[in-house]
Amino acid sequence: MSGSNVLFDAPGPRTARRHRLYSVLATIATVGVIAYAVWKLADAGQFAGEKWEVFSTPRYLEVLLVDGLLNTVKMAAAAIVGAVVFGVVFGIGKLSEHAWIRWPCWLVVEFFRAVPVLLMMIFTWFALGIQNNDSSFRAVVIALMVYNGAVIAEILRAGVLAVPRGQAEAAYAIGLRKTAVMNLVLLPQAVKIMLPALISQCIVALKDTALGQYVLAPGLTAVSKQIYLEFDNRIPTMIVIAGLYIAVNLLLTALATWLQRRYVGERKQLEVSAVAAPAGTTV
Questions:
Q1: Would the pTM count as exceeding 0.85?
Q2: CA torsion angle for 69, 74, 75, 80 (degrees, to 10)?
Q3: What pLDDT does residue 148 have?
Q4: 3-state class (DSSP) for residue 267
Q5: 189 belongs to a structural domain
Q6: Which of 69, 91, 209, 250 has the fewest Cβ atoms within 10 Å of its own Cβ atom?
Q7: Residue 75 in domain
Q8: In 10 A of CB 244, how many CB atoms?
């Protein structure tokens, strides 16, 4: 039996025709909805030139790209880096055999997973002092870091537990200690398992920076509010902001896909037998 038919039977000719019909109908329905939305927007005058002229003005483009997009990317990048570190520390902590390490890590992860990101931003903003110039920026970064870090901790734990138990048992059999087993055997294979979920979580962190407007943080949503309040062009502004978010997310996805192929996808699964055994140890 081929690998492609393990989970389900290959569709027959009638089923294949029915699937093609469903795809055509879904495409027609989607195009119809988009066309109707465009028609309604045009009927409401949302495509008038004066509503879009601001986006061809160099001064406003600079504000949109520098004050908006650049600050959004900065907040997302700082939050993602911090979330990865947070997730690795507490994810491995939850796997500890020592209860005095495992239970505090479990409590921290569950707490930050449960608190909504917006509330965490507001609490952090007030804790840092709302009068400070950069407190809103740091509030967004910290809130996104702890929330996404808690999710990454669970992803890491699930990835490590998904590695076949025989891998760790074989590593212990040749004399490796627990730290070496985790670093050399379990984590490299867990990364391959959890990489798609990590990519999705990075995209979530980028999109959640939009909530920063509620704590007066700089970013695309803060700049967009200034623009549409001045020019009364909320819909065109939201279309442009959505396009920028989509473009950055596509770039992030392309980068993550390249990294997966470069550093993960083309490497074979780590074999414990390839790890050098300590001197004097027989396999």
A1: no
A2: 120
A3: 94
A4: coil
A5: yes
A6: 250
A7: yes
A8: 17
